[in-house]
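User: My advisor, Dr. K., asked me to get a structural model of this assembly before our group meeting. I'm new to this, so sorry if the format is off. These are the inputs:
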Amino acid sequence: MENILALAWLVPLLPFLGFVVIGLGRKYFSKNITGILGSGVVLVSFIFSLILFFDVRNGITGDGIVHYFNFIKVANISIPFEFQVDALSSLFLLIITGVGFLIHVYSVAYMHEEKKEHFGRYFAYLNLFIFFMLLLVMGANYVVMFMGWEGVGLCSYLLIGFWFKNNDFNYAARKAFIMNRIGDLAFLIAVFWIISIVGNANFSDVFEFARLKEFTATDITVITLLLFIGATGKSAQIPLYTWLPDAMAGPTPVSALIHAATMVTAGIYMIARSNILFSMAHHTQTVIMVIGTATALLAASIALRQNDIKKVLAYSTVSQLGYMFIALGTGAYVAAVFHVMTHAFFKALLFLGSGSVIHAMGGEQDIRKMGGLRKKMPVTYWTFLLGCIAIAGVPPLSGFFSKDAILLSAFEHNRIIYAAALFGALLTAFYMFRLCFITFNGKFRGTAEQEHHLHESPATMTIPLIILAALSVLGGWVGIPELIMNGGDHLSTFLSPVIALAKDGHGVSHSTEWMLMGLSTGLVLIMIYFAWNRYGRYKEEKETAVGKILANKWYVDEIYNKIIVNPVSKLGSWLEEGMEKTGIDAFVNNVGRGVNYLSRHFRYLQSGQVGSYILLMVLSILLFFAYQFFIK
Amino acid sequence: MIAVLMILIPLLGGIISFFLKKGNTARSFSLLSAVVTMVIMLYGMLAPKGTTLLSFSADWLPMLGTRFSLEADGIARVLTLLTAIAYPLILVSTWQHTYKNANRFFGFMLLTQAGLMGVFLATDALLFYFFWELALIPVYFLCSIWGGERRIPVTFKFFIYTFIGSLLMLVGIIYVYSKTADHSFALDSFYHATLTGGEQSWLFWMFFVAFAIKMPIFPFHSWQPDTYEQSPTATTMVLSGLMVKMGIFAVIRWLLPLLPVGVNNWAVSVSFLSVIGIIYASLIALKQDDMKRLIAYSSIAHIGLMSLALFANNNVGMQGVVIQMFNHGINIIALWIVVEMIEQQFGTRKMSELGGIAQKAPALALLFVIVALANIALPLTNGFVGEFLMFNGIFTSTAYDGNYTLFGTWHLNAANLGIIFTILAGIGIILSAVYTLRAIQKVLYGETNNLTAGGRDIKVNEKWVLAVIVAVIIIIGIYPQPLLDVSHGAVTEVLQKADIGNLIKK
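Assistant: The format is fine. Below is the predicted structure of the whole assembly, which you can bring to the meeting.
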């Protein structure tokens, strides 16, 4: 057993070494070497993750905690540096390294036009990101998790601003980092809160404390709320979601990896990890459920009217993350993790597909200037279409199973939330197929120049697309509801050591469950038909009042600027001009002037240089002391 | 013995330097002196526990009841180590700089080092005061002779500020001395001086004003941005990296255990000042264009946090402060090095005139970013360790709770103030990310302009200095425990003395 877990540290270390080697050698390595090295380390990590995963599955790793050293141990606080490889983390390891590897491979072709040192910089950052993400999920306590948590934020910042000549991109990067920091502060305060009670932040100890009911109800509520605020930053929920759409400034594979498949799901991972705490905090659960629903709907509505191919996908991601939070809020942690997994497949696929399109279009991202790409890029088209079907939730593709689990859980808890979530699912189907049809169907609307260059992407890009498409189709089959197949829900079984199956109260009857499935599937198919009707042949969308609000994202950025950013900036100016210069400093200067004035009258006593007097004074003191010390 | 050498080498080195004729010789000589000091200090750190290598005592002015006694407890050891390591870094990184009368410049620099070492080591109040002045006075010269355009009024302000502080402290020291049983200036006698609560209350301010000016704490800070801006960079490094630690260290050794009742009376007032200072300085930092002023205000915010954690009066918080003093010293020196490199090359520190440097100087950009991240306490950098511990200390502190009269005016019935302070200080953390990333963006990113288009990357010696610092940042960030262990015993001891135990809160 120990031999197997002894591998655990290699999983994050390899990408870290990749980061160091590529980072230092970026000027000397050819792009091929960089690409092979960058992807290779992630592949090896993936193989190790697989080994770990199967060992966890066979139950031979125990609690999976591996101790390395004491990070901080002072007074009554002890923060060990420990990893925990259990069902939950090993599953995330597979997603991170698996999808991560595919995206690395894809990137080799996607970024090939960069100069080699920037190409190297890109892969170094990407490897560093994988390292931090692995640290995040492998950490056996909240502090190690937090290291990864802020680390992925850093990589996100670096990669959003990868093309750092463009200041708009830099602003987007900064915005992402700062909004995440707001959430991170809440996370940290939660950690302090926990430490002040437990004395450490080890998951095992904290959850044991919770099991023994040694937290007060207030403690639990506050801690979970703070953790949730942390999650709203990283996982882009109301009110801290506005950074994610702007984060699309980064290279598209980065959007796929960081801003869709992995980093943004960190909040869900953290809450699923802390499920014991959250299950005890009903107020927090309600808040999560409501915020998740609101975010899902808000983002879906915005996605209806975006014309930037990546922006549509970005809002879709925000919306899908909302669904995961609905699951968490209703106690369906497994469903949330399930959706993380399927979403990682189909959203990475969609982003990489959009990258393939953007690549072919020479950097164009406006779907109004595309159209008819189906014939020129068949692999991209078919895989993209599969991604759309999967995210829309058509059986038997992966999105259907995970979304169905979430809707079912919502139905069991609150009919209004269920109705809202279902409505959101319909919007999802509509905006995704709008995107797909406008981009790939109809006639080409770009320039002749672009049309001439249209081509299917190279194999290093299409093969990851095909693999992800296969996963998007099949990935849901690990969690087939008991209703359809007895013993089909492998995922719940696998996760059961970490996530207790606490089905509280009203389960629904089989007939209801069938009906719900039928209802959502039927409505989704109708929405796809509507979208086909409207966008199968491209017509310009009419300007409507609602459309304008949606296109402008409900003006949330403008509102934030008005009520937060500008006032803070003004306060800063006022403090500097009003307080610092004319208040404190002026007071001191006037005192100084007074002294100066007085000294002018004593000037004849001096040579005019304060300096020489002080020097004289010091030297005489020195001599005096030295005399006393040595001579006496 | 090592304790004495720590003071004696830079003192003699400084004096000798005055008599050297050539500037280059003085520069090499001062580096030699600094390196020897560092090597001996490192040896001292490795010395087995319980040896007397790090303490010293001899007769000095017996008729006054003062002895030349030095002791490096764990806390002092961290700071002397910092001072010993910082000087070579400072001298090497400003190697290219040429000074008029370089022999005097380096002489004053070394005298300052002697003073600093003395402040950290002295366990005799009069000796402490003597070194306190010895550390300050050379700095007046360094600023007023080798400073920028506005150096004269700025140095004057700095002088007035610190001089007032020192005088108050001297009065305080003499008063406590008069209350000692054996009429002695020894630290231990001071700890045992019989002082009533009322006396402690006003004595607190006699000492604290001097320390607060040095740190500096809001509203005693207005000398600092000007002085940092106008001083030659090497001096600014000494001022910000090392001298501000004098104030914090003095609070630990000369205030908390000496006047526990006074501290208890005023802890909340001081904490409020600290919190205001954090937010105030962070907000002003948002508006700075000059990089030196930006770092100056950022430093005020950081020091505010340290002060807050100090008055939390618990073990974790103080451990955080001690390690953060070390980290802050290293990090801010690194920031100045970066600023110096940029100013040397482009002739300006104004962020609005820079931009796009990352294209021209990738190595500089990389190192700058890492140092900046340490400044905003990203995990796995040294900054995180200190802030994490300090916040823990603040959060759990009960030192703030009870019934208070703030600044003698406002009544306050406080419970859970620790949590409120944590949140308020946490806002400073967010703001620090805002202004730091803003600076990075303005200086490093974007298109190059006429000024920066001809930029080049940093030279090899600069690269090595920064690389060493980055290594320190990351090593301490990943494995801080050895450094924490150095100060652990001393912190516990100080807190035992500072514990008012069953004294009733007023």
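One thing worth pointing out at the meeting: Confidence is low (pLDDT under 50) at residues 502-506 of chain B.

User: Perfect, thanks a lot.
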